[in-house]
């Protein structure tokens, strides 16, 4: 009800999470902060980075949603043609984006140094930290979208030259209730059209004239990907390349990541920490041991280990089908690569199924943040 009152509509992701209202409130508060509140990155950059992140998993739902929001905040429609149309500093973020999305253990000080090097197109440290939070948030949210079955075909956007889709309501887009746009005129034809939008969700669009070419961009995730062959690989099989296990005892969220991200991006540490605490505190009929097994199993697949945990519990508590499901949602949720295994445990209530997907999302989010923040720490002390 809070989301409906404040936003005028409830998107499909929020509807899925609504069975856990305490967590949903924490999630929406964090998402609103990183996308809309004070921060070093312009609003257009924030939504474009979200597009880049969601595209890594071909998440058409999120790419479409943030494409609409990107245009609403005045983003250049030409940027939606692909990465080759954006400023170089956003292009430079692509390498870190794909590494965090698929093989986060590869994240190194060199990635941070390359983005922060002096020059006209460099990033500030504060900008980069916000970008990292956005990337990790949208990568992990893509896992939830696919795991919960929220993903849908991208919605074509009818775009006016000033960057605002005429008659386009973001709340409608989020719920898939977008009617087909009016036919477009050819570029050589001079047109004057008058649009008015007064929607029940409280988002109003005043009348204006269109005298320039209008265009349609389909939110095709592939146009934002430069290396489609790059994907998840088994961490255990990469040990011959001398990738060391990430030991939580050496660098943890509680002792290191939280304080660093909170110092460089004010208050975000508290918001993220509240999400982690909220999801682990959700009631479950299967007890805390199962929740910890799911969390630690995800981190293990991403190269993160806990010295004080007996990993034998993972095999005892998680059936093979459950492990296959968790792995597919956490590591390669993109259904165009490997079809998701159905969630086992048929007796599970819908809220418990959502709980499993929330655990997967938050564990993955924390893992990506740990790798990125450790690399930033290494850059700062070098």
UniProtKB/TrEMBL annotation:
Pfam family, one: PA26
GO cellular component: cytoplasm; nucleus
Compartment annotation: Cytoplasm
GO process annotations (BP): cellular response to L-leucine; cellular response to leucine starvation; negative regulation of TORC1 signaling; positive regulation of macroautophagy; regulation of response to reactive oxygen species
Highest taxon listed in the record's lineage: Eukaryota
GO terms of molecular function: L-leucine binding; oxidoreductase activity, acting on peroxide as acceptor
InterPro entries: AhpD-like (IPR029032), Sestrin (IPR006730)
Known catalytic reactions: a hydroperoxide + L-cysteinyl-[protein] = S-hydroxy-L-cysteinyl-[protein] + an alcohol
Keywords, in A-Z order: Cytoplasm, Oxidoreductase
Family to which the UniProt record says this protein belongs: Belongs to the sestrin family.
Full protein name: Sestrin 4
Organism, as annotated: Hucho hucho (huchen)
């Amino acid at each position: 009800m809070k989301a409906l009152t404040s936003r005028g509509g409830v998107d499909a992701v929020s509807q899925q999470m609504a069975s856990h209202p305490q967590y949903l409130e924490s999630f929406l508060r964090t998402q609103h902060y990183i996308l809309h509140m004070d921060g070093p990155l312009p609003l257009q950059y924030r939504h474009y980075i979200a597009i880049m992140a969601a595209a890594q998993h071909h998440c058409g739902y999120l790419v479409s949603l943030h494409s609409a929001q990107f245009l609403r905040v005045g983003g250049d429609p030409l940027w939606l043609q692909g990465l080759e149309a954006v400023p170089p500093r956003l292009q430079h973020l692509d390498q870190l984006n794909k590494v965090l999305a698929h093989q986060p253990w590869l994240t190194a000080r060199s990635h941070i140094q390359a983005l922060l090097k002096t020059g006209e197109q460099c990033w500030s440290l504060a900008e980069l930290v916000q970008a990292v939070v956005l990337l990790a948030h949208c990568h992990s949210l893509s896992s939830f979208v696919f795991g919960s079955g929220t993903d849908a075909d991208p919605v074509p956007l009818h775009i006016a030259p000033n960057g605002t889709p005429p008659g386009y309501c973001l709340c409608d887009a989020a719920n898939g209730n977008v009617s087909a746009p009016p036919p477009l005129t050819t570029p050589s034809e001079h047109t004057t059209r008058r649009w008015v939008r007064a929607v029940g969700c409280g988002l109003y669009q005043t009348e204006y004239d269109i005298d320039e070419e209008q265009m349609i961009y389909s939110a095709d995730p592939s146009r934002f990907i430069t290396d489609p062959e790059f994907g998840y690989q088994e961490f255990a099989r990469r040990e011959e390349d001398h990738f060391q296990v990430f030991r939580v005892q050496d660098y943890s969220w509680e002792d290191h990541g939280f304080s660093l991200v909170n110092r460089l991006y004010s208050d975000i540490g508290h918001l993220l920490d509240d999400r982690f605490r909220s999801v682990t505190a959700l009631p479950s009929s299967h007890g805390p041991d199962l929740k910890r097994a799911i969390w630690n199993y995800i981190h293990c697949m991403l190269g993160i280990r806990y010295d004080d945990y007996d990993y034998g519990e993972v095999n005892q508590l998680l059936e093979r089908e459950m492990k296959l499901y968790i792995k597919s949602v956490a590591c390669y949720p993109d259904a165009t690569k490997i079809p998701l295994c159905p969630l086992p445990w048929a007796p599970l209530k819908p809220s418990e199924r959502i709980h499993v997907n929330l655990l997967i999302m938050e564990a993955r989010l924390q893992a990506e943040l740990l790798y990125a923040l450790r690399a930033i720490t290494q850059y700062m002390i070098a």
